[in-house]
Design a protein that fits this description.
The chain is 41% helix and 22% strand. The protein is α/β, with parallel strands linked by helices. The chain has 2 domains: 167 residues, Carbamate kinase (3-Layer(aba) Sandwich), CATH 3.40.1160.10; 90 residues, Carbamate kinase (3-Layer(aba) Sandwich), CATH 3.40.1160.10. The strands form 4 sheets. The protein has an 8-stranded mixed β-sheet, sandwiched between helices. Strands 3-4 form a two-stranded antiparallel sheet. A hairpin with a 2-residue loop joins β3 and β4. α3 packs across α4 and α6 runs parallel beside α8. The longest helix is centred in the middle third of the chain and has 25 residues. The N and C termini lie far apart (45 Å).
């Protein structure tokens, strides 16, 4: 028992300088559908976000919800087709995306945050013209390319002491609704906020030297090294667009971007507040 108490005390001592470093800074958490694997895990992730907010860290959550969208499309008899990792989205599917992300997933997360003692306001990219968009590629239908981020509404929510919870749907001047890639939106929003860090939650440990060896984690990558890692095949497949978003966030002024396994309880706290971390950190240079 004494050894356990000593370990807990050591962890708190180790966290102190990081708590001081991040106080009054902005952290953006991109919470993806693949990391939302259970209600218990959602409660742990949202509980960590409440903790960050309560110790004075300006915390923003940007979320996706791919599995929930797929499930709802199945219910209405629509199949999901993907091109280069992006969901082909016709007009009816775009309405379903809006319903699932802005209606169900967003409000579920707000509810969990508030039940954990936090203060949260859920918005979509449509609210306050937060995410203006246009059609990215006619082959993809209503998949949006971001044309502008109006960050004022997020700043206002933060300044009132609330956690903004953002669902990534956008729209254009004609009123068309677009499905926006959550990684892309999180990178843009973090850059506009001048965030200290962006945490990308996914379903793998991070970038692996050997994709078949989970112990070959690369703990730190300088943005200028990414192209070389792609050429060597270390960053490949579905990791390419995610890593490109990490680099984009760094280019837009975010100091550090972390790719972590969102299925691990308290991964956010372990990454931010321990010397070892647990995922892959991207930095400028």
């Amino acid at each position: 028992m004494q050894n356990m108490d000593a370990m807990r005390a050591e962890m708190l001592t180790q966290a102190l300088p990081y708590l001081q470093k991040y106080r009054n800074k902005t952290i953006v958490i991109k919470y993806g559908g693949n990391a939302m694997q259970s209600e218990e895990l959602k409660r742990l992730v949202m509980g960590d976000a409440v903790l960050l907010s309560m110790v004075g860290i300006r915390t923003v959550i940007v979320h996706g919800g791919g599995p929930e969208i797929t499930d709802m499309l199945k219910r209405v008899g629509k199949t999901s087709e993907f091109v280069d990792g992006l969901r082909v989205t016709d007009k009816e599917s775009a309405e379903i995306v809006q319903m699932v992300l802005a209606g169900k997933v967003n409000k579920d997360l707000v509810k969990i945050l508030q039940n954990a003692g936090g203060k949260a306001i859920g918005i979509s990219g449509i609210d306050g013209h937060l995410i203006d968009a246009k059609m990215r590629d006619e082959r993809l239908g209503y998949v949006g390319e971001i044309t502008n981020i109006n960050i004022e509404i997020v700043e206002d929510i933060l300044n009132m002491g609330y956690i903004p919870v953002i669902s990534t749907v956008g729209f254009d001047d004609e009123g068309n609704v677009y499905n926006i890639n959550a990684d892309t939106a999180a990178a843009r929003i973090a850059g506009m906020l001048g965030a200290e860090s962006l945490i990308m939650m996914t379903d793998i440990r991070g970038v692996l030297e050997d994709k078949d060896d989970p112990n070959s984690l690369i703990t730190k990558i300088v943005a200028s090294e990414v192209r070389q890692l792609m050429n060597r095949g270390i960053i490949s497949g579905g990791m390419i667009p995610k890593v490109e978003c990490c680099v984009e966030a760094i280019r837009r002024g975010v100091n550090k971007v972390f790719v972590v396994d969102g299925r691990v309880p308290h991964c956010t706290l372990m990454e931010l507040f321990t010397d070892e971390g647990m995922g892959t950190m991207f930095v400028g240079g």
